[in-house]
Amino acid sequence: MRNFACNSVLGLCSILAFGFGCTVHRSGMGADSEAGDDSATSRTVETDDGSDDGHGDVTPDVTTDSGTDSGTDSGTDSGADSGADSGADSGTDSGTDSVSAETDTATAVKYDEKFVGNITTRGEIRSDFGQYWNQISPENEGKWASVEPQQNNYRWESLDAIYSYAEDNYMPFKEQPLVWGSQVQSWLDRLEDDGIAAEIEEWMQEFCSRYPNTALIDVVYEATPGHLPSEVAKRAFGDDWIIRAFELAHQHCPKSVLLLTDYGVLSGNTAEFIDMATPAVNAGVVDALGLEAHGLEKVTLADIEARLNQVLALGLPVYITEYDVDIENDAAQLEVMQSQFPLFYTHPNVVGITLWGYVERMTWAAHAGLIYQDGTKRPAMTWLMDYLGR
Q: Is 95 part of any domain?
């Protein structure tokens, strides 16, 4: 195994990764933290050392190239999901009960390998999910607007089912997202700024107390200028709203790996994402970076790799959080999958991959499905499962 170490300008993190997971030690929560500062914390999220399946070293020992930003932008916005709740409503549950008996925040959840996961299908977990994937995320069910559409009226039932499935099947559960500038509940607009701040913290506290073993969380989502930064969070916390959101997430979600996630980074908004992320990375509050990977069908492999290495120069591990290949033609989809997926899977500093849907006509991107609804595989899926040995 290898040590992954990063020294930011104002923060220090040391990450020892095994397969998908990592151990995170933090010297302080912000630029002004000192050894005796009450705000300084040390957190651990740790996994067992899984065996390499032959596709390359998956331990994050960061070495990066400078890369070249071609300036092309796919313009694909992964935030255009409908946000519709799957329909399950647990009523007015305050959310204080945990669905897991595990509440010891000093004990990290452990998993055995670098994951290749996927999301729910229209709010459901198909019976074949575990045959293909070893990590799960909710597509829309975890969004704040889906969980708390009216103030203090929580709808937990769908998330309860997904989280319990992950626990029962020993796979990482990833939440997406906590703070986002889309699908904002109208009731927040009626609150004063301090009221919004209190509600954001309450949302984090309720979620993480209910699901304490959540492995990964997109804490701040699509915050690059011109994307979907959260205006309500900025009202609540001011210009340092991203840092403050992560500080709160660390407080309430001590066992989770906390991600700063955005789209377009591997196709055109690389420099803008780095500029946005740098203050929070330097403050030492971000555990990892999440790169959505929609819209890469016509981007060259060399360009993707160069942009990935630019992001890795920030010194944090990367998760590919929303990968798909949106091509109707089977042969063309297979060709792109065979070219791109091994880059992510074998890269030593990409420590987990989540595909964004797998059932044809039931995915966010129109032709990104990898199997048909009757379970018949498209060629790209057959290749991917052979590649992964599943």
A: no
